[in-house]
User: What shape does this take?
Amino acid sequence: MGRELLQREQAITFVKDTFSTYLKQALHLIPISSPLIVLDGTGINDDLNGIERPVSFPIKSLNEQRAVVVHSLAKWKRVRLKELDLEPGEGIITDMRALRPDEDYSPIHSIYVDQWDWEKVILPENRNLSFLKETVKDIYASLVQTEKNVEAKYPHLKAILPENITFISSEELLNRYPDYTPKERENAIAKEYGAVFLYGIGGTLSNGFAHDGRAADYDDWSTENEAGYQGLNGDILVWNPILSTAFELSSMGIRVNKEALQRQLTIRHCTERAELAFHKMLLEDQLTESIGGGIGQSRVCMFMLKLSHIGEVQVSIWDDHKKIKLAEENINLL
Assistant: This one.
């Protein structure tokens, strides 16, 4: 078992190194360092759906001011772009490590989160669906090429991704499957096409519900795009035949500008956040326009190595009963 785990670790490293190399080249990204913690009360941390509790603790040397472990770096990266004085077309990428203690355990969820967090400076005229799609195509091409490299190194791991990714709005998907739940709609479209970018996630659809939750202050999910729908953000979904489900690899989007932030804070009834440090910077035009997102490292490794549980590609905390049950199913966690 020890040698098998070591070989799997080597395969994980191969996948991560290969994909990150392609991604940096495709999007012109510069690797940088990033924080595990940020100060509380600044608006910098990602609030996800607004109900998840961050890990927090007081800092003795800062008069007990509280710090929080990041959920993601969605807003921190945008501040960093300004600090690094990057030009349009230039971007950054970092290995993000986070803790989400409220995450429900599942084959694809862990309280430990690892992803490639990236952000790129854009021009105001790039705030459109066409630019978003071109960026998605670059990311997807990196995934396709990585899978081919994995197959070349490990011939039993056959490449299954289609050459091209399909684009569909969350409203179109609802119209296509009006009686399905959001997850059932994702499963149906991902199984049909193999790889889909579902865009416009966060705003209310014609049925009175959002496809999924999104925070008000990073992705722009409310601006009308040239296809006639709302939203300049979305998720990259692939069909995972091992789990027989749609498999999210990335959440990304064009970030809010001043107008979109004000609108989305109003929609979500949280206009008081406009007084936080990050939000003030954006409302006072101190931050550049940008596009960015996160790509799950463990998710990509699971998919490329055709594994069925996230614990097979990352070291996290699992209860003993779960580990014993998985071992009985011949699933060995790291």
